[in-house]
Amino acid sequence: MGAGATIFLTTLVVILALIAHQGKRSRRAQASLAMILLFLSLMVAGVGVLLFFTLRLEGGAGISTAAAGAMAAILALAGLAGMALCLWPLRRLTGRRVKRAKLAEPTIFLGVWLFIMVLANNLIGFIAFMAVPDVTELLPGGGDLLSPAEILTTALPLVVVALFGVGFLIRRNVRQTARRLGYGGISAPELGIVGLFVLGSLGLAFAADAAFEYLQPELYREVGDISEGLFVPAGRPPLEAALFALLIGISAGFSEETLFRGAVQPALGIFATSVLFTSMHIQYGPSVVLIQIFIWSLAVGILRRKINTTAAFLAHAAYNFLVVMLAYAGFGI
Question: What's the pTM?
């Protein structure tokens, strides 16, 4: 995704979050949010239908007709699901009783709607991974080693969405926002638990890597080349490699944990958050590694629930750092 599209989508989500939090005390804001999301859902469904009929008339362009048809179906279904979701706040606004009233709450309503749309987008990404001739076209920098700017510009939108998603500067100040996101102190015994968690994560990663190589050897080589190109600073001096690994660890750990475990998990739960988190890892394709990522995400969610987001961030950052450095040393995971 280009920088312009990232800025546009991030700004759109922030605006929707502002309206949702205003909806906590304003029926007009609630109605505005419902109508905006209804319109956007209709647009998404319309794009899916348009793509379907375009395929029937002209056939697929660049990818197989089956893959393009699957993309069209996902868009149409996501749009229909979004429109159906809008019934909850609209029914409540008209004074009718609604079951599962929590879905009519503006912030929850927006969160579930975004969950549907992001998941649909990621499913389309997995289809594209399987369908396009050159997967590197889908990756930042064409599959080359990520630059510090690319790493930070990927992380920053997640943090911005997390902050405004929980009402920063709208309903919460800095301290209240940090508390809502789950950030806080961590004791020495809890730090020890984080260390053990990281070791267990590495063990799970090695086991998943072995299973991946055995069960899907061709995809294993393809994904390995992609991961090595993006995340392994091969040929760089050790200090530069360590700084790169540290940047990957801290930026990905902080941004992803702030959004997923900090903002999303308290609203949608560990399971749904883990589904969404796993779907973000398009670079692994339809591989068994996704099972490992899902299990790991469930475990990080439990770590966040039992301790806090600080523990989840430290575990994620340390794990990413070690994975990059092990790959740099020739022990790829």
Answer: 0.92
